[in-house]
Amino acid sequence: MSVCVGVAFKRVSKSYWFDPDGLDLEEGQRVIVETSRGLEIGAVKIGARHVPEDEIQSALKKVVRIALPEDYLQERENREKAKEALAVCNERVKAYELAMRLLQAELSFDGGQITVYFSSENRVDFRELVRDIAGHLHCKVQLHQVGARDQAKMIGSIGPCGLTLCCASFLTDFAPVSMKMAKDQSLFLNPVKFSGVCGKLMCCLRYEHEMYTEARPKLPQIGDVVRTPQGQGKVMDLNLSTQIALVELFLNGEEVSFPALELSVEKTTKCTDCRGCSVDSLKEDADEAVIAE
């Protein structure tokens, strides 16, 4: 195991392991680290700890030093230069009439390389553009195409909930989100209803999915014939988050809500449509009971 600290290079981004090289570092401190692109400035997000070798994905690089006042000044200057470089890039993109939207530009700490992020619906041949921009900026240039989710993360916005997008405020990784998650949560299967501003399924569908998948096997399902404190009935609706079931009673056709855990499923054929044969027979038994009374 190696002693490492986790360093992130953006406010909301993944942390990478670095060798503290004997420095006493605390969370929140700004540091200069050695990376594959040269020196970079970042913030310590995870304090020193022992990390198994299999969790270190590449050769462990070192923290060079704690950031100095002149490093902060260099960082501000780099941001201004990146804005100017982005404006130059936009001009050249228009000149080449390329179907791409430039999103953000980043200048390496030593100023030797600029990375420009862009979005496009199709693949773009930007080789000639890169050579042109490099000639204007006199440094190494990389163009990086990003997807819809990364675009929303970079730009930022307000979600349907009225809060800042999760990806722009705290999510460091994009986990897969599927239609099955929406189905498990009994949402209407219309992707427009639960898609984010990026056009993809909302990341928050994952937050409660584990609770839904754990609760579902323990509760009766819609269409089950159950016994309630007021007699037999059919489950018409089920709220998995509150674990409340809406049951249509066979005795009088009234729909009553019950705690789902208090219901016992009858050992009978599950309804496959509005009125299955087993339900009809149970309703007939209920009607006969009323007549007998």
Give structural notes.
There is one protein chain. The protein has 293 residues and is an alpha+beta fold. The protein has four domains: 2-67, no CATH class; 73-146, GMP Synthetase, Chain A, domain 3 (2-Layer Sandwich), CATH 3.30.300; 152-210, no CATH class; 219-292, SH3 type barrels, CATH 2.30.30.30. It has helices spanning 69-96, 127-137, 148-155, 166-169, 179-184, 209-215, 277-292; strands at residues 2-8, 16-18, 30-35, 38-51, 63-66, 101-107, 113-119, 140-145, 225-228, 231-239, 244-249, 255-259, 264-265. The strands form three sheets. A five-stranded antiparallel β-sheet has the order 2-1-4-3-5, with no helix packed on it. Strand 6 and strand 7 (113-119) form a beta hairpin. The longest helix is centred in the first third of the chain and has 28 residues, at 69-96. The protein is elongated. Mean pLDDT is 85; it is low at 272-280 and 289-293.
Helical coverage, percent range: 25-40%
- The percent range for strand residues is 25-35%
Sheet having the most strands = 5 strands, antiparallel
Could you state the CATH homologous superfamily of the largest domain? K homology (KH) domain
- Named at the architecture level, the CATH assignment of the largest domain is 2-Layer Sandwich
Estimate the mean pLDDT confidence. 85
How many structural domains are formed by the residues? 4
| Secondary-structure content class | alpha+beta
What count of helical segments does DSSP give? 7
